[in-house]
Each structure stands twice: as structure tokens, then as C-alpha cells.
Amino acid sequence: MLDRRSFLSTGTLGVLASAFAPRIAFARAATNRRFVFVIQRGAADGLGTIGAVGDPAFAGVRGDLAADFATGTKLDGMFALHPAMTASAGLYKQGQALFAHAIASPYRDRSHFDGQNVLETGGVSAYQVRDGWLNRLLGVLPAEEARAIAVAATVPMALRGRREVASYAPSNLPDASDDLLQRVTMLYDGDRQLHALWSEAMATRQLTSDLGQDGGRNAAATGALAARLLKPDNGARIAMIETGGWDTHTGQRGRLAAQLKGLDVMVASLQAGLGPLWADTMVLVATEFGRTVAVNGTGGTDHGTGTAAMLFGGAVKGGRVVSDWPSLAPAALYEARDLKPTMQLDAFIGGAVSSHFGIEPARAMAALFPASAKTAAVEGLVQV
Amino acid sequence: MSASSIALNRFGLGARPGDGVSGDPAKWVLAQCERFEARPAAIASAPSTSSVSATLATYFAQQRMIRAEFGPRRPKPAPSAAAPMTAPSAFMPMTGPGAPTPMTAPAMSAMMAPPAMPGPAGDKPGEAARRAARQLAGKQSRDDYGGAVAARTIAALTSDAPFVERLVHFWANHFAVSTDKLEVTGLAGPMEFEAIRPHVLGNFADMLNAVERHPAMLLYLDQAVSVGPDSPFAARRPRRRTGLNENLAREIMELHTLGVRSGYTQADVTEFARAMTGWTVAGIGRGPGARMQDDSRQDDARPGAFVFLSEVHQPGDRIVMGKRYPAAGEEQAQAVLADLAVHPATATHIATKLARHFAGDTPPPAMVKRLQAAFLESGGDLPIVYRALVASPEAWVTQPVKFKSPWEWYVSTQRALGTTIVQPGVTVGMMNQLGQPVWKPGQPVGYDDIAAAWAGPDAILRRVEAAERFAARAGPVDARALAPTLFPASVSPATTQAIARADSPAQGLALLLVAPESMRR
After folding, report:
1. Is the dihedral of CA A137, A140, A141, A146 positive or negative?
2. Residue ranges of the domains in chain A?
3. Using alpha carbons only, what angle is made at residue A149 by residues A117 and A226, rounded to the nearest 5 degrees?
4. Residue B144 and which of A168, B415, B502, B512 are 20 to 30 A apart at CA?
5. Cβ-based neighbours of A165, under 8 Å, separated by 6 or more
6. Beta pairing class for A307-312 and A80-81
7. Contact (CB<8Å) B502/A194
8. Which of A179, A191, A197 sits opposite B456 (nearest CB)?
9. Partners of B319 in the beta sheet?
10. Side-chain-side CA neighbours of residue A84 (13 Å)
11. Fold entry, domain A35-336+345-372
């Protein structure tokens, strides 16, 4: 990591600065806002992150997995936060963390890769939309704000599209390999078959890099790295971080705790790294779909539907859980197994992003989620 | 793709530096038939059927000696040829190229020395000897296998007749054996070298005949242990569990000739299997032919040689697909085989597979019809079929029609780099890593010849990783200049740009090796 950091300080930031320099020279940013999208690849268990402890069915159906919430932070009369997320609990108390529950993208099947494609493209079904909503967001921002970087080995789907974006990966592979992978991504961009295969290969590669690994040190380093990429005036305004390891089919209790610890540490190190800029920052955490309500035979949960999404940052109007709770009673479950989604993730993201950047909500929805354009964005998520 | 690029890549195995298509591309492809060497230097010095068989025969003789001295082994499935040691490991340590050391008699008796001593873990008597023999045979087989893989690769890399080399690979996959058995591990290469290469420009019936008589096939599909239920051999051993084995007979009909669901019945398979009884291998395996050397009854039968044992043959006439084949010993099955070789269903089967290999995963019906007609009218004269193939416009469409298999991709990258020598262990390990171990499809149907089998995300990632390694080790190569040599007038602007923007020559080369042009043909 040391080598990478020193390379970064002398190399990457310089490259970034010069890449953005022509626009920067005389520009005055419309806003000072920063936005980070943290994708949880592998279907993070929303119910295991924010427990519905006030739901009479919760303790029974969740068994062991419910036990952790005894020591978690009470968020309100219904919900408690997983005890591993101590920094997040602190942000919640300060009104800088907001959770949305029983939320889902338009995708209703249970394939990771298709689900992630929908989450990232902003379409309603997989492989229908060719670019990512985060790339399209660049198109509706003032030019001086339209700078994004992927803190990832390759440019993830959400950032792919017409607008150029940078990328930088905290990887253990030699730099040259990362670079080659990125170049192969570009090389295959116009080749439908190879592009699809390559995207999936890269997604799988990400799934194998667990957030909980290494006692969260990786996660902290990634958060710090993202902050360094976002902090300079001439740096990126939008960053995307990929996290894997959420696919907890077995032994979820320990694994999810480690994952959530990693996520918590990452958010904390982003906050620490951004310093005063945290006041102008919004971090969105979202996953492709949730997991089954019931625990399976191996102490884990299987692919489900409704889940939770999170917003962190000084700009967030937090300290609350936004949810039209559908209940965990057997009759209330989606397809008799999953948390029923009662909020559209598209509308939630559209609302958060449009308020954050001061874009008219309908315009943001049309650009980011054209298929859901008629859906009203969820308003009031951000301090204006 | 330009016609030249199609000639080099779809019909050939990829261009080498300095290669070029002169004159009419179709004629250029066919002219390679005049240049093909059935036995180039690399193949000539590779392990042969007789050298590999001699090693195996020693091993099997030794197993019998241990058995005679210590009695049968504990009842465990798959005794001597346990699977784990026959499977080439993902990254075999590098072994010397080519020539395996023949196992000498003194070496064998040295191996025989420890058996009397009990094994460390309280083994049954003889277990240590069995284990030592097995380990030695396993190592020998892997060495033979590695040597043969290297020979095949070098032949493909250095050939001036890549079209014909491609056809050798095609036929080897058509007549697939799989090195899942100890006996097959070392013999798969020699089968390709001695039964397929000499006939690739000959008649289909001759290739079929040579393959079905080769020990690799006879052992792989269990023909060597098949015994006629009413044969004198079975009559002398009423209590031994011997009998008919239909495996090879069925696969000849289903895979090698007629094709599945082409009209033959289970009764036809059984009758053909009865006709084939007596076709076996001298000196190797556990079939009735294996002990011949000990018995000294057939001094002329070298280990690994095809032998017909009349005492194992099921007596009587056979009726296969409505035709009566009178009792004629070895010639009976031979007559069935000869008819199968020229059957219309066989022509359709072969025509379909050839069309799929050269014109796309969904073979164009008109082309299949044309090839089938060429096959039938010529009585399976392969060069005539190849001419019909090269003359088919469906094989010259400008869009790539095939996603390269790992073998095709690997060979084309090495030809592009001008590689002419490979180390056995490296090639074996690379093909395992790329997902297509040589001669090890795991089933007699061979490897699939469709994109769905090879175009997977992980497979692509491995090619990218491999390409980076190849490029790092290659000398100074200017990928910008190499690209149009490999794909004349067919390099896309995206590939040209990616190479031009690479931050080093090696990175440019790696990008060229995994560009869309390099992945398909």
C-alpha cells in the first residue's frame, strides 16, 4: 500500500490535475458538492444492516441474525442499526446519515449480474440501456462539476458512457495489469459480445475482493484514497467505489458484521479525508437487490428483493429512516420469501442526486432513469 | 475480414511474422495440401506408440507380478490406474523436452526391491511396491504426455501448412480420446501422430480404421476388455467376470461415423460390438491381450500393437443395420467399419461438423449438402471434401464466424510472436489454465466446437492475463506493424487506436493479442 500511496501522491493526482486543467483554469464551480456512490455488489442484506426490531415477526424469522441488534443503535421505534456500524451511528445522531428501507430497483429476478446491470444503467431490465446513470448525470451537471472517477480496477457500468471518466484502483495486482485491464475495457467497448463478457469478468473480480478483508484496513485505505481524489479543487467531484463480499449464503452473522464494519470504516475515512468538504458531501450506498427474509439452512440468506439504501454526509438531511414498512408477516412478503419493496430505488437516487446538485428533479429523473421518468423523485433527502 | 485474413486465420492457425497470402486466397489455402508434412522433425522425435507402450507394458507386467506374489489388492475401485495421477496437474513442474527416458529392466527391479518391506502406515503386503510402481508409471506417462503436447504445438507453430494442421486438430477432436486413464495419457499424442496425421489427406475410411485399431482408442473406450460371451476364451473361464463391452462400438456409430439418432438401434450397437470382439491390444491394460507377452504365445506382438484374438471373438454371423456380415474373424468388424465409413449418415455427420468448424456455429444447410455430396461421391476422399469446403462461399463471409477455442487462440498468439520452440510443462500448464487441456476433453464426444463453450468471462480474463505474460517475454515487437501482418486489411480503428495509445510496446502487443480480431476467426 505504501508504494501505491506514494505513487498516487506524485503520479495519479498530477495526471488527474493535468487532465482536468483546461476546464479548471477559469472555471468557477457552480457548487462545491461532492458525491460518492458506493455499490455493494453481491446483494447486501438490508434487513441484516438495519433490523426491523419493532416488527413482531423480525426476531422469529431472523433467528440468530436478529440477535446482533440487541446491542445495535436504536434508530427509531421500528429500526436498529447493526452494532458494527459505530461511525454510522454517530453520523445518524448528528443528522448526517439517512436510511431507506424496503427499497428496490425495478429489477425483479435474482441474478447478481443482471441486477447490477439494472442498478448501474438505470434501466428497467438488464442490458437494455448501454450507458450508466452516473455517466448520464455528468451530462446534466455544469461542465466544471462534471468530473468523475471510478475508484475501481475498471470503469464500472454506472460510470460508463459518452462522458469520459477517470479511474484508479486500489488493487494488489501490479500497476501494469490494472492498466491493461482498463485498456482492454476500452478496447472491447464497441464489441458487444466481448464487452458483455468482459464486464461480467470485471464484476466477478470485484465480487472476490471482500470489503471485510484485512480487518477493514483495505476499506479504510479505499475511503482515504477516494477522499484524496475528491478533495482538490481540480479533482473529481463524483467518485464511485465498488465493494464486494455481500453475497452471504452461508455463515452470514460473522461475515456481514465484518462487511458492515468495513463499510463503516470506509465512510469514516472518507469523512476524515474530506475534512470541511464533508459538509458538501453526499455518499450513497446501494446494492442490486436484497436477501431472503428467512435464514437458510447454512446460517445465511439467499437472493431476495427489497433491501436498504443509505445516504451519508454533511449535506444529508439525516437522522431518520425513510420507509413505508410493509411488515415481515408471511402474507406481506414478496413471493412469500422476500422483503416487499415499497419504495423505488430510482426515485430515491433521483431525489437525492437532484437536490444535492440543485437539478430540477423531473429533469434528473428523465436523464438518469428515463424508464421511471414519470415517477416522482423522493424529495427532502438533502439540506438545500 | 479480408479474404487474405480469412485464409490466414479462419482456415489457417494465424500468421507468423513475415507470412502473407500470395495470389488467390482459396488457392493459397489448398496449395498447403502439397506442403503438409505428416511427420515433421518435432513429431518424429516425439514419444511413439511403441515407446509409450513399452513403458506401460512394463508397468502392467509388474502389477501382475506383485499380484502373483502378494495376492490381490484390497477390494478398492480402479486399482492401478487411479485417476489423480493420470490427470496432468494445472502447473506441472517443467520437464525436459521430448524424449522420455525408457524404463530399463534394472530400474524396474530397483523399484521392485522395496515391496517385501511393510509400508510406513501399516500397508498390506505389496502396497508399497504397488505405490512405487504407480508413481513411476504416472510420472512416465506425464512425461510422455508433455513431450507429445510440445511436439503437437511445435508442429502447429512451425508448419507451412497450417490449414492441414488445423484439420489434424479437427480430426483428433472428432476421434477424441481423453487422458483420464493412465493408459491413454501417454498414448493420446501418438494416436494423433500415427493414426490421424498420415491419413489427414487420405481417405476417411483409412483414418477411421487406423484410429479404431490404435491402442489409445481401444483402451479408452474399453474395447480391449470386451470378450465374446460364447468365445472359447469365455468358455475356459466360466467364473471370471468377462463379457461384451459395447462402449467403442456405440461411440463409433454415434460419434465417429453415423452420428447420434441417425437410425441405428441398440440391437445394431450390440451386434457391432459382438463383431468387434477379439480386437484388442497386446501387452497393455487388463484385457485378454495384456498377458500375451508373459504367455510368450505371440512373440511377434509388440506391446501396444493391435492384435486380433480369435479365441476372444464371438462366433457367428452378425446383422448390423439390416446387413448380414458372415463370420470372418477380424475381417467381420472391418467389413462393418468399411460400410459405416461411406454411409450417407456418416457423410452428413462429417459434413455438418466441417461446416460448423469453418462457416459458423450454425452450419449453413446448403454448404452441408455440398460437403456431404462431395464425401459420398468420392467415397470419403478427404482432399475432395476439403476442396468443396474451400470453394464454399459460406466459409468466406467477411464477418468472423467462429470464437477461437483456447487452443486456437494460444497457437495463433505463439505464431504471431514467431515462437518455434515450447517447453512441455509450460504448454501443458498454459492449456490447462486457458481451459482446454490438450487431449483431455473428459468425454469421447470431444470438445464443443461452438462459441458458447469458450466465450466466458473468466476465459477472456485468463487470455488477457496470459497475453500480458506472452508480451512481457516477447522480444521487441512493434504491435503496430504486426497487426496488419496478422489481419491484412482487417484491423479495426479501435484496435489500431488501442495499440497506438499503449504506454509501452509490450502493452501494445498484449492488446493486439486479445483484440477482437485475435479472439475470433
Report:
1. positive
2. 35-336+345-372
3. 110
4. B415
5. A135, A138, A148, A149, A150, A155, A159
6. unpaired
7. no
8. A197
9. B324
10. 24
11. Alkaline Phosphatase, subunit A (3.40.720)
